[in-house]
Amino acid sequence: MTTASFSGSNAAAVAAAKTVLITGVSKGLGRALALELSKRGHTVIGCSRAQDKLTSLQSELSSPDRHLLLNVDVASNSSVEELARVIMEKKTVPDIIVNNAGTINKNNRLWEVPVEEFDTVIDTNVKGVANVMRHLIPLMLPRGHGIIVNMSSGWGRSAAALVAPYCASKWAVEGLSRSVAKEMPGGFAVVALSPGVINTEMLQSCFGASASAYQTPEAWSLKAATMILNLTAADNGASLTV
């Protein structure tokens, strides 16, 4: 792995080409990160439930034929199991996994959040991360190295009213990441990464029009890509922020 001593454009120049799996790649942070990594010469394995957006993204990636975009529901164990099968078949085991797929409840007090909405947040944000790690870590282990980035949130380290299901899910991601980090052999890192406050659809659902005051996913991806590419085994178990 490249060491973390480089920064900015230097890191992009010196980082060896990597294969990066990104979940939730059809919009927001996942989409921006995929585009930025492809510009830097890396190979993207992207997954989402939105086939039309995957098709659109494929054409926008640099060297489109180099990348693999698949229709996957991370909340479904069998869907992620099939993702792992395809990755093995195509011999494209990732060097880095970015568990980015996520959702948030509509602003509401806990007792007013529909049970189906609560379940969707937990199934996507927690079980989705676990499903990907369950099926992809065994593929990475024989290589002796790998980085797993589980997207957390400032609300995975603090709390706010009206988003209790989301806060609970991101606190779970923090705990899950720290625990799995202790289970990994040398050469690997599992980290929880808070992206900071970004103007995404999820932020807009909480903040409304004031979300526009925050940076765009495209601006965020410049710094995030460099940071993620330069993570090493020394970062194992860390809770980081872009």
Explain what you see.
It is built from eight helices and seven strands, in the order αβαβαβαβαβαβααβ. By secondary structure, the chain is of the alpha/beta class. The chain has a single domain, classed as NAD(P)-binding Rossmann-like Domain (Rossmann fold, 3-Layer(aba) Sandwich). Helix 1 (8-14) packs across helix 8, helix 2 (28-39) packs across helix 8 (217-229) and helix 4 runs parallel beside helix 5 (115-140). The longest helix is centred in the middle third of the chain and has 26 residues, at 115-140. The two termini are 20 Å apart. Residues 1-14 have low confidence and may be disordered. Pfam families: adh_short (PF00106). Belongs to the short-chain dehydrogenases/reductases (SDR) family. It comes from Corchorus olitorius.
Number of strands: 7
CATH architecture: 3-Layer(aba) Sandwich
Task: Summarize model confidence as the mean pLDDT.
Answer: 93
| Rg | 17 Å
Biggest β-sheet description: 7 strands, parallel
The CATH topology comes to Rossmann fold
Quote the distance from N terminus to C terminus: 20 Å
**Strand order, sheet with most strands:** 3-2-1-4-5-6-7
What would you give as the CATH superfamily?
A: NAD(P)-binding Rossmann-like Domain
The percent of residues in helical segments reads 40-55%
Please tally the helical runs, counting DSSP H or I stretches of 4 or more residues: 8
CATH class: Alpha Beta
Please give the domain count.
Answer: 1
Report the principal-axis shape: globular
Structural class: alpha/beta
Please report which band the strand proportion falls in: under 5%, 5-15%, 15-25%, 25-35%, 35-45% or over 45%.
5-15%
Q: Indicate the low-confidence ranges by residue numbers.
A: 1-14
The SSE order reads: HEHEHEHEHEHEHHE
